[in-house]
């Protein structure tokens, strides 16, 4: 199937129009027209080869909302016309213990990423959602609740599940005391998810600039991390901290904020951190952990939860030909809080 998208041809080239072929439908495949695609920091890192594993040409995008246009003969979960979603994965071995436990993100054979990953059958490199069409295995195609605004759903497929999964893993619910460090694309979703689950939510930020925004999003309190007195008073006051800071940073101010047996969960920074002190971990049986998106069943659970609670990200809609400017703005945190590409713009002439 011929399609069009935007691709990076090298680490230092801007994304530009690109024509390529999607695979023909296999028996268990779903084909879709992409309606909206979210813009994730991972897209920027991959396009620019910040992690050193990009294969070019690279079509990013793993927060995908579409309409089914065709299905293979073995497909039972979706039909033509359905509104569906695809997140960060499009395949896994389906046979290991993690796949059987609904945690395909930890597949023993390695999951197949929605882009920049070899197809399990052909070895062709997957191309993502910055394009007009997608073909994906049925088991990795999700249903979208009818109550949700399609134009704002896309970031749930990465930012949403990345923050929902650790909240569920560490049993957050009514009475839980949750802090969210950093309030960007991930952080604002962590606030909404934790509030939806019934927790008492505090946003931690270096300055008070985002206090009004945090409270508007549903947070109960705001803690300025540069205020030593306030941080000291907040010691041992949280059960879970969701750390969404996307750069190398110091955990030492945050760990003492956890109560005994509390957990700080890293979901932002992929890579090195400043050297941590083990003292508060040992003295308070506190934990520092990481979390990677979520499995397919949990992602569907998250979408259904958002449908019931009407939880959606705050989005700025852009045209496809505005993606390079969006990348530049995202690096400066100049977005409230996620960019979403309207794929209808891909049919229009570029300016």
UniProtKB/TrEMBL annotation:
UniProt-recorded name of the protein: NAD(P)-dependent alcohol dehydrogenase
Annotated organism of origin: Thalassospira povalilytica
Domain of life: Bacteria
The keyword Nucleus appears for this protein: no
Record's keyword terms, sorted: Metal-binding, Oxidoreductase, Zinc
Enoyl reductase (ER) domain boundaries: 10-341
Cofactor(s) of this protein: Zn(2+)
Classification of source organism: Bacteria, Pseudomonadati, Pseudomonadota, Alphaproteobacteria, Rhodospirillales
Matching Gene3D superfamilies: Medium-chain alcohol dehydrogenases, catalytic domain, NAD(P)-binding Rossmann-like Domain
InterPro entries: ADH-like_C, ADH-like_N, ADH_Zn_CS, CAD-like, ER, GroES-like_sf, NAD(P)-bd_dom_sf
SMART domains the record matches: PKS_ER
Family recorded in the similarity comment: Belongs to the zinc-containing alcohol dehydrogenase family.
Gene Ontology molecular function, alphabetical: alcohol dehydrogenase (NADP+) activity; zinc ion binding
Pfam families: ADH_N, ADH_zinc_N
